């Protein structure tokens, strides 16, 4: 059983997914979409009222190992959706949810056992430094700005686009659905409190930037009203820095998913990646507000 008063190990998060699927079989199911470099399962939790024609929303967390608030927030959101299901507004229940709380399971475990600030996956490169930055390994403008060809760099892009099973199986899974299925792709990271939309690879903006910006600002202002916390909104490249090969850019540019966002959870730097667990609930609520706002936009088709 998970609590949101501590950070949890991978096995506990996977047990939570299985427990939810077993306890709420009418709305929940689980699927393993592939295995990581070290052969850990890449597990997702699906939540649905059973209508295959609902729009889909993909949520992933834990792509960067040390960003522990991300899996914590994503599991918090999943728990809220499930426990509150009967009372949820239509725009939340008429969505098929695909939730992947730990997309970098090997790195996540390594950050618990060995190096708290590990970021990449655990790909071995022989005698060179291990690890690929999964958020530089997706296949849209792969290898561009803000990526490194050197295995020792924190932003090592890998040997080619989707060279890593953790990114490959996400793209394979999503690409297996009809193109209109997924209407939102939400990647949870930390830290800095930003809501970011494409593009990340360069300073250009998408044609529908106004829609992406409006929904992000809406979420930001509701979060500020409810928890007092501020999220900065803008495109990834202009707001943070250009970085190619991100999951959000792939979702937007290749998978054709309209609402592609990266949200950087708290804090703004006091604790950074090593955020004390007492901050999980607040971040969880902020994450839920973000997801709720995006789902409302999806339901309204705008
Ligand atoms: O650099 C990243 O991958 C993300 N920031 S983090 O501190 N969590 O590492 C930002 C990614 C934004 N999206 C793209 N650049 N595509
Ligand atoms: Zn990150």
TrEMBL record:
Belongs to the peptidase M14 family. The gene is Dgri\GH24581. The active site is at 264 (proton donor/acceptor). The lineage of its organism: Eukaryota, Metazoa, Ecdysozoa, Arthropoda, Hexapoda. Residues 6-298 form the Peptidase M14 domain. It comes from the Eukaryota. This is GH24581.
């Amino acid at each position: 059983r998970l609590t949101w008063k501590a950070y949890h190990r991978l096995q506990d998060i996977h047990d939570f997914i299985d427990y939810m699927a077993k306890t709420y079989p009418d709305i929940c199911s689980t699927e393993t979409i592939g295995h990581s470099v070290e052969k850990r399962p890449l597990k997702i939790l699906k939540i649905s009222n059973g209508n295959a024609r609902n729009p889909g929303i993909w949520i992933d967390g834990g792509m960067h190992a040390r960003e522990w608030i991300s899996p914590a927030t994503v599991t918090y959101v999943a728990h809220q959706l499930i426990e509150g299901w009967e009372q949820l507004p239509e725009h939340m229940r008429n969505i098929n949810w695909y939730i992947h709380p730990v997309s970098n399971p090997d790195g996540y475990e390594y950050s618990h056992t060995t190096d708290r600030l590990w970021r990449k996956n655990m790909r071995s490169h022989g005698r060179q430094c291990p690890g690929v930055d999964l958020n530089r390994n997706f296949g849209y403008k792969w290898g561009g700005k803000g990526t490194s060809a050197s295995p020792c760099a924190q932003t090592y892009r890998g040997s080619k686009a989707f060279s890593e099973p953790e990114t490959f199986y996400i793209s394979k899974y999503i690409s297996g659905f009809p193109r209109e299925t997924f209407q939102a792709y939400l990647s949870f990271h930390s830290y800095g409190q930003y809501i970011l939309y494409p593009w990340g690879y360069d300073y250009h903006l998408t044609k529908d930037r106004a829609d992406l910006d409006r929904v992000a600002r809406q979420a930001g202002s509701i979060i500020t009203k409810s928890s007092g916390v501020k999220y900065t909104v803008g495109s990834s490249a202009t707001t943070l820095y250009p970085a190619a090969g991100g999951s959000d850019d792939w979702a937007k540019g290749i998978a054709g998913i309209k609402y592609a966002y990266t949200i950087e959870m708290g804090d703004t730097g006091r604790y950074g990646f090593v955020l004390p667990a007492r901050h999980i609930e607040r971040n969880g609520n902020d994450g839920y507000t973000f997801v709720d706002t995006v789902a409302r936009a999806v339901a309204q088709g705008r």
